[in-house]
Amino acid sequence: MSTPIKVLVVGATGRTGMSVAPFFNTDKGKAVTALTRESSLGKPENQKLKDRGVQVVAADLLGPKERLVDVLTGIDIVISATFWRNLFDQIPLAEAAKEAGVKRFVPCSFMTPSPRGAMRMYDWKDDILAAIQRVYLPWTSIDVGWWSEQVVPSIPSGRTQKYQSPYFEKIPGDGTMPVALTALADIGNYVAKIIVDPRTLNKKVFAYTDVHTYHEVHDLMERLSGEKTARSYVPASEVKQKIDEAEETLSKDPKNDAALMQLFFFQYQNNLGIRGDNTPAKAKIFGYLDFKELYPDVKGETVSELFQKILNGQDKDSLYYLWK
Protein backbone atom coordinates (compact mmCIF):
# COMPACT_ATOMS: atom_id res chain seq x y z
CA MET A 1 0.00 0.00 0.00
CA SER A 2 1.43 3.40 -1.00
CA THR A 3 2.23 6.05 1.61
CA PRO A 4 -0.48 8.75 1.84
CA ILE A 5 0.38 12.24 0.63
CA LYS A 6 0.74 14.49 3.68
CA VAL A 7 -1.15 17.77 3.32
CA LEU A 8 -1.08 20.68 5.77
CA VAL A 9 -3.82 23.32 5.58
CA VAL A 10 -3.44 26.83 7.00
CA GLY A 11 -6.73 28.65 7.65
CA ALA A 12 -8.69 25.42 7.81
CA THR A 13 -11.49 26.95 9.91
CA GLY A 14 -12.47 29.49 7.23
CA ARG A 15 -15.05 28.69 4.57
CA THR A 16 -12.53 27.81 1.88
CA GLY A 17 -10.44 25.88 4.40
CA MET A 18 -13.49 24.01 5.68
CA SER A 19 -14.16 22.84 2.14
CA VAL A 20 -10.55 21.71 1.71
CA ALA A 21 -9.35 20.13 4.98
CA PRO A 22 -12.18 17.68 5.79
CA PHE A 23 -12.43 16.68 2.13
CA PHE A 24 -8.82 15.53 2.12
CA ASN A 25 -9.41 13.50 5.24
CA THR A 26 -11.98 11.40 3.39
CA ASP A 27 -9.46 10.73 0.61
CA LYS A 28 -7.59 7.54 1.47
CA GLY A 29 -4.58 8.73 -0.54
CA LYS A 30 -4.05 11.82 1.61
CA ALA A 31 -3.42 12.55 5.30
CA VAL A 32 -4.37 16.08 6.35
CA THR A 33 -3.18 18.30 9.18
CA ALA A 34 -4.58 21.74 10.06
CA LEU A 35 -2.24 24.43 11.38
CA THR A 36 -3.62 26.89 13.93
CA ARG A 37 -2.30 29.39 16.47
CA GLU A 38 -1.60 28.09 19.97
CA SER A 39 -4.23 30.47 21.36
CA SER A 40 -6.85 29.03 18.97
CA LEU A 41 -6.38 25.33 19.70
CA GLY A 42 -9.40 25.15 21.98
CA LYS A 43 -11.78 27.06 19.71
CA PRO A 44 -14.98 25.29 18.61
CA GLU A 45 -13.99 25.54 14.95
CA ASN A 46 -10.85 23.51 15.57
CA GLN A 47 -12.81 21.00 17.60
CA LYS A 48 -15.13 20.54 14.61
CA LEU A 49 -12.10 19.70 12.49
CA LYS A 50 -10.92 17.18 15.08
CA ASP A 51 -14.39 15.65 15.17
CA ARG A 52 -14.11 15.14 11.42
CA GLY A 53 -10.79 13.35 11.81
CA VAL A 54 -8.43 16.22 10.99
CA GLN A 55 -5.25 16.44 13.07
CA VAL A 56 -4.76 19.98 14.43
CA VAL A 57 -1.31 21.31 15.37
CA ALA A 58 -0.27 24.71 16.71
CA ALA A 59 2.41 27.11 15.50
CA ASP A 60 2.65 30.87 15.05
CA LEU A 61 3.49 31.91 11.49
CA LEU A 62 5.36 34.91 12.89
CA GLY A 63 6.98 32.89 15.68
CA PRO A 64 10.31 31.05 15.75
CA LYS A 65 11.21 29.66 12.34
CA GLU A 66 12.52 26.48 13.92
CA ARG A 67 9.04 25.61 15.19
CA LEU A 68 7.52 26.07 11.72
CA VAL A 69 10.25 23.96 10.13
CA ASP A 70 9.62 21.25 12.72
CA VAL A 71 5.86 21.23 11.99
CA LEU A 72 6.42 21.22 8.22
CA THR A 73 9.07 18.51 8.11
CA GLY A 74 7.58 15.46 6.43
CA ILE A 75 4.72 17.45 4.86
CA ASP A 76 4.40 17.04 1.10
CA ILE A 77 1.97 19.85 0.27
CA VAL A 78 1.04 23.06 2.12
CA ILE A 79 -2.27 24.73 1.26
CA SER A 80 -2.92 28.21 2.61
CA ALA A 81 -6.49 29.46 2.95
CA THR A 82 -5.57 32.15 5.45
CA PHE A 83 -7.63 35.25 6.25
CA TRP A 84 -6.83 38.14 3.90
CA ARG A 85 -5.48 40.34 6.69
CA ASN A 86 -2.82 37.69 7.32
CA LEU A 87 -1.77 37.20 3.71
CA PHE A 88 1.81 38.36 4.16
CA ASP A 89 2.31 35.93 7.05
CA GLN A 90 2.61 33.34 4.29
CA ILE A 91 6.10 34.58 3.43
CA PRO A 92 7.81 33.21 6.58
CA LEU A 93 5.66 30.09 6.17
CA ALA A 94 6.98 29.62 2.64
CA GLU A 95 10.57 30.16 3.77
CA ALA A 96 10.12 27.53 6.47
CA ALA A 97 8.44 25.19 3.97
CA LYS A 98 11.45 25.47 1.67
CA GLU A 99 13.80 24.60 4.52
CA ALA A 100 11.59 21.68 5.58
CA GLY A 101 11.57 20.17 2.08
CA VAL A 102 7.88 20.74 1.24
CA LYS A 103 7.27 19.59 -2.33
CA ARG A 104 4.46 22.00 -3.27
CA PHE A 105 3.09 25.22 -1.75
CA VAL A 106 -0.41 26.45 -2.61
CA PRO A 107 -0.69 30.10 -1.52
CA CYS A 108 -3.99 31.67 -0.58
CA SER A 109 -5.51 32.88 -3.82
CA PHE A 110 -8.96 31.29 -4.39
CA MET A 111 -10.37 34.47 -5.96
CA THR A 112 -11.28 35.75 -9.41
CA PRO A 113 -8.54 35.97 -12.06
CA SER A 114 -7.09 39.41 -12.67
CA PRO A 115 -4.13 41.11 -14.30
CA ARG A 116 -1.78 43.08 -12.08
CA GLY A 117 -2.89 46.65 -11.43
CA ALA A 118 -6.64 46.02 -11.60
CA MET A 119 -7.25 44.65 -8.07
CA ARG A 120 -5.20 45.44 -5.00
CA MET A 121 -6.11 42.10 -3.44
CA TYR A 122 -4.78 40.26 -6.48
CA ASP A 123 -1.60 42.34 -6.48
CA TRP A 124 -0.94 41.43 -2.84
CA LYS A 125 -1.42 37.76 -3.60
CA ASP A 126 0.85 38.04 -6.63
CA ASP A 127 3.50 39.69 -4.44
CA ILE A 128 3.34 36.67 -2.15
CA LEU A 129 3.69 34.30 -5.09
CA ALA A 130 6.80 36.23 -6.13
CA ALA A 131 8.24 35.75 -2.62
CA ILE A 132 7.59 32.00 -2.92
CA GLN A 133 9.35 31.92 -6.27
CA ARG A 134 12.35 33.84 -4.91
CA VAL A 135 13.16 30.94 -2.56
CA TYR A 136 12.62 28.40 -5.38
CA LEU A 137 9.76 26.69 -3.56
CA PRO A 138 7.57 24.65 -5.96
CA TRP A 139 4.08 26.12 -6.08
CA THR A 140 0.60 25.98 -7.59
CA SER A 141 -1.77 28.96 -7.51
CA ILE A 142 -5.50 28.20 -7.70
CA ASP A 143 -8.31 30.64 -8.40
CA VAL A 144 -11.95 29.59 -8.27
CA GLY A 145 -13.92 32.47 -9.76
CA TRP A 146 -16.92 33.89 -7.92
CA TRP A 147 -18.85 31.89 -5.36
CA SER A 148 -22.20 30.70 -6.72
CA GLU A 149 -23.67 31.46 -3.29
CA GLN A 150 -23.09 35.17 -3.93
CA VAL A 151 -25.37 35.49 -6.97
CA VAL A 152 -28.64 34.28 -5.42
CA PRO A 153 -31.44 36.64 -6.59
CA SER A 154 -34.29 37.99 -4.49
CA ILE A 155 -37.84 36.78 -5.24
CA PRO A 156 -41.19 38.11 -3.91
CA SER A 157 -41.98 35.05 -1.75
CA GLY A 158 -38.78 35.58 0.27
CA ARG A 159 -37.71 31.96 -0.17
CA THR A 160 -34.18 33.01 -1.13
CA GLN A 161 -33.77 35.85 1.36
CA LYS A 162 -31.73 34.07 4.03
CA TYR A 163 -29.37 32.69 1.36
CA GLN A 164 -28.58 36.03 -0.25
CA SER A 165 -25.28 37.83 0.18
CA PRO A 166 -25.76 41.02 2.21
CA TYR A 167 -23.02 42.69 0.14
CA PHE A 168 -23.50 41.65 -3.47
CA GLU A 169 -27.24 41.86 -4.00
CA LYS A 170 -26.87 44.34 -6.90
CA ILE A 171 -25.78 43.44 -10.42
CA PRO A 172 -22.47 45.08 -11.43
CA GLY A 173 -22.57 46.80 -14.81
CA ASP A 174 -25.43 45.97 -17.16
CA GLY A 175 -25.66 42.25 -16.33
CA THR A 176 -24.39 41.01 -19.71
CA MET A 177 -20.80 40.13 -18.74
CA PRO A 178 -20.06 36.39 -18.33
CA VAL A 179 -18.99 35.34 -14.83
CA ALA A 180 -17.29 32.05 -13.86
CA LEU A 181 -18.91 30.51 -10.77
CA THR A 182 -18.00 27.79 -8.26
CA ALA A 183 -19.97 26.48 -5.28
CA LEU A 184 -17.95 26.62 -2.06
CA ALA A 185 -18.55 22.95 -1.35
CA ASP A 186 -16.70 21.97 -4.54
CA ILE A 187 -13.45 23.79 -3.85
CA GLY A 188 -11.97 20.92 -1.82
CA ASN A 189 -12.63 18.41 -4.59
CA TYR A 190 -11.13 20.67 -7.24
CA VAL A 191 -8.05 21.45 -5.15
CA ALA A 192 -7.51 17.75 -4.44
CA LYS A 193 -7.26 17.05 -8.17
CA ILE A 194 -4.98 19.97 -8.90
CA ILE A 195 -2.36 19.56 -6.18
CA VAL A 196 -1.28 16.02 -7.11
CA ASP A 197 -1.08 16.68 -10.84
CA PRO A 198 2.47 17.17 -12.21
CA ARG A 199 0.99 19.31 -15.01
CA THR A 200 0.00 22.00 -12.49
CA LEU A 201 3.36 22.32 -10.70
CA ASN A 202 4.60 25.92 -10.91
CA LYS A 203 1.41 26.91 -12.74
CA LYS A 204 -1.72 28.96 -12.13
CA VAL A 205 -4.99 27.04 -12.46
CA PHE A 206 -8.48 28.47 -12.93
CA ALA A 207 -11.08 26.11 -11.43
CA TYR A 208 -14.77 26.83 -12.00
CA THR A 209 -18.08 25.05 -12.63
CA ASP A 210 -20.44 27.36 -14.53
CA VAL A 211 -20.18 30.48 -16.66
CA HIS A 212 -23.29 32.69 -16.71
CA THR A 213 -24.14 36.35 -17.12
CA TYR A 214 -26.04 37.91 -14.23
CA HIS A 215 -29.10 38.11 -16.46
CA GLU A 216 -28.85 34.37 -17.14
CA VAL A 217 -28.59 33.72 -13.39
CA HIS A 218 -31.77 35.71 -12.78
CA ASP A 219 -33.55 34.00 -15.68
CA LEU A 220 -32.61 30.65 -14.18
CA MET A 221 -34.05 31.56 -10.78
CA GLU A 222 -37.25 32.75 -12.44
CA ARG A 223 -37.66 29.44 -14.27
CA LEU A 224 -37.01 27.36 -11.16
CA SER A 225 -39.11 29.44 -8.75
CA GLY A 226 -41.91 30.60 -11.03
CA GLU A 227 -41.40 34.13 -9.66
CA LYS A 228 -39.91 37.35 -10.99
CA THR A 229 -36.53 38.31 -9.54
CA ALA A 230 -35.61 41.78 -8.34
CA ARG A 231 -32.92 43.27 -10.59
CA SER A 232 -31.02 46.35 -9.45
CA TYR A 233 -27.71 47.53 -10.86
CA VAL A 234 -24.45 49.27 -9.97
CA PRO A 235 -23.53 51.18 -13.15
CA ALA A 236 -19.94 51.30 -14.40
CA SER A 237 -19.74 55.04 -13.68
CA GLU A 238 -20.55 54.47 -10.00
CA VAL A 239 -18.04 51.63 -9.73
CA LYS A 240 -15.29 53.85 -11.16
CA GLN A 241 -16.24 56.75 -8.90
CA LYS A 242 -16.12 54.57 -5.78
CA ILE A 243 -12.74 53.10 -6.75
CA ASP A 244 -11.30 56.56 -7.40
CA GLU A 245 -12.65 57.85 -4.06
CA ALA A 246 -11.14 54.95 -2.14
CA GLU A 247 -7.76 55.25 -3.85
CA GLU A 248 -7.63 58.99 -3.15
CA THR A 249 -8.41 58.42 0.54
CA LEU A 250 -5.82 55.65 0.81
CA SER A 251 -3.17 57.83 -0.85
CA LYS A 252 -3.55 60.23 2.09
CA ASP A 253 -4.33 57.67 4.79
CA PRO A 254 -3.00 54.19 3.85
CA LYS A 255 -4.41 52.64 7.03
CA ASN A 256 -7.99 53.80 6.44
CA ASP A 257 -9.84 50.50 6.80
CA ALA A 258 -13.18 51.78 5.47
CA ALA A 259 -11.52 53.05 2.29
CA LEU A 260 -9.69 49.75 1.84
CA MET A 261 -12.95 47.80 2.15
CA GLN A 262 -14.58 50.14 -0.37
CA LEU A 263 -11.67 49.62 -2.75
CA PHE A 264 -11.83 45.83 -2.45
CA PHE A 265 -15.60 45.77 -2.91
CA PHE A 266 -15.77 47.92 -6.01
CA GLN A 267 -12.67 46.42 -7.60
CA TYR A 268 -14.46 43.08 -7.38
CA GLN A 269 -17.53 44.68 -8.98
CA ASN A 270 -15.28 46.06 -11.71
CA ASN A 271 -13.64 42.67 -12.22
CA LEU A 272 -16.96 40.85 -12.48
CA GLY A 273 -19.33 43.15 -14.29
CA ILE A 274 -17.33 45.81 -16.13
CA ARG A 275 -13.87 44.48 -17.10
CA GLY A 276 -15.10 40.89 -17.27
CA ASP A 277 -11.82 39.37 -16.07
CA ASN A 278 -13.55 36.43 -14.36
CA THR A 279 -13.93 34.26 -17.45
CA PRO A 280 -12.01 31.24 -18.78
CA ALA A 281 -10.97 33.16 -21.91
CA LYS A 282 -9.51 36.08 -19.95
CA ALA A 283 -7.86 33.71 -17.47
CA LYS A 284 -5.95 32.06 -20.32
CA ILE A 285 -4.60 35.46 -21.34
CA PHE A 286 -3.41 35.90 -17.74
CA GLY A 287 -1.54 32.59 -17.93
CA TYR A 288 -3.92 30.16 -16.21
CA LEU A 289 -4.48 26.51 -17.05
CA ASP A 290 -8.19 25.69 -17.46
CA PHE A 291 -9.53 23.17 -14.93
CA LYS A 292 -12.15 21.84 -17.33
CA GLU A 293 -9.51 21.09 -19.94
CA LEU A 294 -7.33 19.33 -17.37
CA TYR A 295 -10.18 17.29 -15.83
CA PRO A 296 -13.10 17.12 -18.29
CA ASP A 297 -14.85 14.36 -16.31
CA VAL A 298 -14.93 16.23 -12.97
CA LYS A 299 -18.35 17.75 -12.29
CA GLY A 300 -19.31 20.29 -9.66
CA GLU A 301 -22.59 21.65 -8.36
CA THR A 302 -24.16 23.87 -11.00
CA VAL A 303 -25.90 27.14 -10.24
CA SER A 304 -29.16 25.44 -11.18
CA GLU A 305 -28.58 22.65 -8.65
CA LEU A 306 -27.64 25.15 -5.92
CA PHE A 307 -30.74 27.25 -6.59
CA GLN A 308 -32.96 24.18 -6.44
CA LYS A 309 -31.50 23.25 -3.03
CA ILE A 310 -32.16 26.79 -1.83
CA LEU A 311 -35.75 26.72 -3.07
CA ASN A 312 -36.17 23.37 -1.31
CA GLY A 313 -35.08 25.05 1.95
CA GLN A 314 -31.81 23.15 2.47
CA ASP A 315 -29.86 24.06 5.62
CA LYS A 316 -27.40 26.92 5.04
CA ASP A 317 -24.52 25.30 6.92
CA SER A 318 -24.64 22.27 4.64
CA LEU A 319 -24.20 24.69 1.71
CA TYR A 320 -21.00 26.16 3.24
CA TYR A 321 -22.52 29.60 3.67
CA LEU A 322 -20.11 32.29 4.86
CA TRP A 323 -22.77 34.67 6.14
CA LYS A 324 -25.39 33.92 8.78
From TrEMBL:
UniProt cross-references to PANTHER family, sorted A to Z? ISOFLAVONE REDUCTASE HOMOLOG P3-RELATED, PINORESINOL REDUCTASE-RELATED
Please indicate which superkingdom the organism of origin belongs to.
Eukaryota
Where in this chain does the entry annotate a coiled-coil region?
none
Q: Please name the source species.
A: Neoarthrinium moseri
Which InterPro entries does UniProt cross-reference here?
Answer: NAD(P)-bd_dom_sf, NmrA-like, NmrA-type/Isoflavone_red_sf
Domain NmrA-like span(s) in chain numbering: 6-250
Gene3D superfamilies (UniProt xref): NAD(P)-binding Rossmann-like Domain, UDP-galactose 4-epimerase, domain 1
- The protein here is known as NmrA-like domain-containing protein
Q: What Pfam families does the record point to?
A: NmrA
